[in-house]
Amino acid sequence: MADHLLEVRDLSVRFHTAQGIVNAVNGISWHLDRGETLAILGESGSGKSVSASAIMNLIDMPPGEITSGQILFDGVDLLKKSEEDRRRLNGKRISMIFQDPLGHLNPVYPVGWQIAETAMAHGKPKDEAYARALALMERVGIPDPKASMDKYPHQFSGGQRQRLMIAMALVLKPDILIADEPTTALDVTVQAEVLSLLEELQEETGMGLLLITHDLGVVAEAADRAVVMEGGHIVESGTPRELYHHAQHPYTRKLLAAAPGKGEMRDPASDEQPILRVQNLQKSYGSFAALKGVNFDLHAGETLAIVGESGSGKSTIARLMLHLEPASGGKVLWKGEEILSKTPREMGPLRRQLQMVFQDPTQSLNPHMTVFQIISEAWVIHPDILPKSQWKDRVAELLEQVGLKPEHALRNPHQFSGGQRQRIAIARALALEPDLIICDEAVSALDVSIQAQVIALLGELRDRLGIAFIFIAHDLPVVRDFADHVLVMQRGQVVEHGTVRQIFEAPRQGYTQRLLAAGLDSDPDVQAERRSQRLALAATQA
Amino acid sequence: MKTMLGKRAVSSLISLFVLIVMVFFLSRLTGDPAALYLPVDASEEMRQNFREIHGLNDPVIVQFGRYIGDLVQLDFGESLRKARPAIDVVLEAFVWTLWLALITMALVSVAAIVVGSIAAFNVGRPFDRVASVLSLIGASAPDFWIAIVGIVVFSVSYGLLPTSGTGTVWHWILPIAVLFIRPFGLILQIVRGSMINALGSPYVKTARAKGVKNRPVIFVHTLRNAMLPVITVIGDQAAALLNGAVVVETIFGFPGVGKLMIDSILQRDFNVILAAIMVTAIAIFLMNILIDIAYALLDPRIRT
Amino acid sequence: MTMTDTSDTVRAEEDPAKPVSGLRRVIAMLWADKLAFVAALFLLVIVLCAVFGPMFLQDMAAKTNLRARNAPPFELERGFFFILGGDALGRPLLARIIVAAQNTMMVAAGAVVASMIIGSALGLIAGYTGRWVGEAIMRLADVIMSFPSLLLAVIVLYMLSPSIANLVLVLAITRIPIYLRTTRAEVLEVRQRMFVQAAIVMGASNFRIVFKHILPVILPTLLTIATLDFAFVMLAESSLSFLGIGIQPPEITWGLMVSQGRQYLTSAWWLAFWPGLAIILTTMSLNLLSSWMRIALNPTQRWRLEIGAKKNG
Question: Which domains does chain B have, with CATH numbers?
Answer without folding.
Answer: 2-72 (no CATH), 86-303 (1.10.3720.10)
